[in-house]
């Protein structure tokens, strides 16, 4: 769980409405506003004013700012990469069905892209919508699509498979379940409302039809927007501030580190990124037995506010050479935060955008909980791999975590107007 933070950005650019829709100032179509307000007028809400369509004296409550927030589908980079952490997430991997190939995959990506565009705009899906999210707005819904190593062989596109998509090396601390790892296709779903996220999950699964079958699926969560007095770096289930040193889109080299350039190599990956997904179980019973001071030594940061043990605030530069009166390093040599620093790994950087998870409590009373680690980079061989190798050799956190599943996927750039995700690969 490298010590990097998630950028606190809100995508405020909403795409234009569908033909026949009149887009309101808050980015929701007239059709959506009417569906929200019913036959009554709209009043000013947290997201700003909207034109009212009065037909009754009573005023319906408008969508809150959480429900009203919308992320664009037709963007340069696929949605779900640079957006802030979302309150609810689903990760799902598919394998193409026996006999399915490039033709079936193309039709599937067309369906998924159309569904993503509709749902992210707060509209129902085109086919057999379940109505689960009928009363909610888009709630920052994002859907992100990627291709696994095995996808290219099954579709006859081996020559288009990126070198960067070669399988990750083995790590000595791995305890991987192959049935819950990798896959031909990968979908990430995130939203700030649990029902909106579940609605998208069901739509994606139903769209797969006979073309693909679910290989594995995982559910995650984060703190809800507005739950704290001010925007803060997230905490993980160990109670630690997790993500302080994440690259930020305002960094001059952000795009270079996170996204494949245009023109890309291969060309269809221009403006795309590579995502590493790891299910990391936290051994919480063991961790919680440690005194806070020992937990802080393992991480290298104060638990209360995320500040480095060398002093200052959360964002203060960590002094790796500072010693205590006895001559011991204040930030231990094997502290997690020291090992994961980019300047300790040849500049290796990745954009972390994780979800916590909790899958119940076993008969032995031990919680099955931890982190769905998700990190983005232009090249995993220069991002995730060198950092994980170093963690594998001596991270103080290793005795308290277990890597149980893993996947690597190529995520192409966003679909332009009139395109579907992956079109440049499947029709190139």
TrEMBL record:
Residues 78-222 form the Dyp-type peroxidase N-terminal domain. InterPro entries: Dimeric_a/b-barrel, Dyp_perox_C, Dyp_perox_N, Dyp_peroxidase, EfeB/EfeN, TAT_signal. Its EC number is 1.11.1.-. PROSITE patterns: DYP_PEROXIDASE, TAT. Keywords: Heme, Iron, Lyase, Metal-binding, Oxidoreductase, Peroxidase, Signal. The keyword Ribosomal protein does not apply. The keyword Iron applies. Residues 1-28, 298-325 are annotated as: Disordered. Its main location: other. It is an enzyme of class 1 (oxidoreductase). It holds the Pfam family Dyp_perox_C. Residues 233-415 form the Dyp-type peroxidase C-terminal domain. It comes from the Bacteria. Residues 1-14 have a biased composition (Polar residues). It is found in: Cell envelope. It catalyses: heme b + 2 H(+) = protoporphyrin IX + Fe(2+). Binds 1 heme b (iron(II)-protoporphyrin IX) group non-covalently per subunit. One of its GO terms (molecular function) is ferrochelatase activity. Its cofactor is heme b. Involved in the recovery of exogenous heme iron. Extracts iron from heme while preserving the protoporphyrin ring intact. Belongs to the DyP-type peroxidase family. This is Deferrochelatase. It comes from Streptomyces pimonensis.
